[in-house]
């Protein structure tokens, strides 16, 4: 029997004795498998990446919302609201890793991020459907085009770093935060395409149609985050740890 299984059995026995000790879940066992110094280093990296996301998305939200109001663009307004949700997601990760045992907040952090996914899906659906139904044709926004291009260039690297760190930590919450950044990348591409098609061809409908697809993806990711169906830290429900092949073990 491995040391991890010995520890799990001990914890289960303590719980059975009625001393209030909860049985370990998959996330706790997976996190415990990472050496303490490495876990601390990865935790600091997760906080740095979250803080970077919060700072960038805060600026992005202000610029997008202002440009959206000026141009009358539902797409830019939706993009700005998405940036605000990205800020909340990063703050959730910072809250989680301020705790002495971040894994103890894993489930609540993942569910909070899941709620932000659902909010994102609802907001994008509302904005996209409204743009389709009203047939509004926004003004050309040079600021919006530049903003979308910059985000499209920067967000993939940040998302990759977040998701890689989350897998190494066996943290579904950090992986979900990185996935939300990846959705921001898709949103940037959709926004850029929509603004360019509107500016060059007058296709005002292209952006909201693609936005509805992004909303569906966000809803699915929210469902998975709520259920804890991320890549790493999956438990069998009996204290046994299952580490999928996509999770690094070194």
Please give the oligomerization state of what you see.
single chain
- pLDDT averaged over residues: 76
What share of the residues does DSSP label as strand, in percent?
A: under 5%
What is the topology, as strand order, of the major beta sheet? Answer: 1-2
Give me the strand/helix succession.
Answer: HHHHHHHHEE
CATH architecture: Up-down Bundle
* Shape descriptor: elongated
CATH superfamily placement = Cation efflux protein transmembrane domain
| Percent helix range | over 70%
Radius of gyration: 21 Å
Total domain count:
1
What does the main sheet amount to?
2 strands, antiparallel
Q: Tell me the distance between the termini.
A: 21 Å
Helix-strand category? mainly alpha
List low-confidence stretches.
Answer: 12-29, 231-250
Query: Within the CATH hierarchy, at the fold level, what is the topology?
Result: Alpha-lytic protease prodomain-like
Number of helices: 8
How many β-strands, per DSSP? 2
Q: Which CATH class applies here?
A: Mainly Alpha
């Amino acid at each position: 029997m491995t040391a991890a299984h010995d520890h799990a059995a001990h914890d289960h026995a303590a719980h059975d004795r009625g001393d209030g000790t909860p049985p370990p879940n998959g996330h706790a066992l997976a996190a415990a498998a990472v050496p303490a110094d490495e876990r601390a280093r990865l935790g600091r990296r997760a906080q740095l990446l979250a803080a970077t996301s919060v700072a960038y998305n805060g600026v992005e939200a202000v610029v997008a919302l202002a440009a959206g109001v000026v141009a009358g663009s539902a797409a830019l307004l939706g993009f700005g609201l998405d940036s605000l949700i990205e800020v909340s997601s990063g703050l959730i990760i910072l809250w989680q890793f301020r705790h002495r045992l971040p894994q103890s907040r894993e489930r609540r952090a993942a569910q909070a991020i899941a709620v932000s996914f659902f909010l994102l899906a609802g907001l994008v659906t509302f904005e996209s459907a409204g743009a389709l139904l009203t047939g509004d044709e926004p003004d050309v926004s040079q600021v919006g085009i530049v903003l979308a291009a910059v985000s499209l260039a920067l967000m993939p690297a940040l998302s990759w770093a977040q998701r890689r760190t989350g897998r190494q930590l066996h943290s579904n919450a950090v992986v979900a935060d990185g996935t939300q950044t990846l959705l921001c990348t898709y949103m940037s591409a959709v926004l850029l395409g929509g603004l360019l098609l509107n500016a060059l061809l007058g296709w005002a409908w292209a952006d909201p149609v693609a936005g509805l697809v992004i909303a569906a993806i966000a809803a699915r990711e929210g469902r998975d985050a709520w259920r804890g169906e991320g890549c790493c830290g999956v438990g069998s429900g009996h204290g046994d740890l299952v580490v999928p092949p996509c999770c690094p073990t070194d």
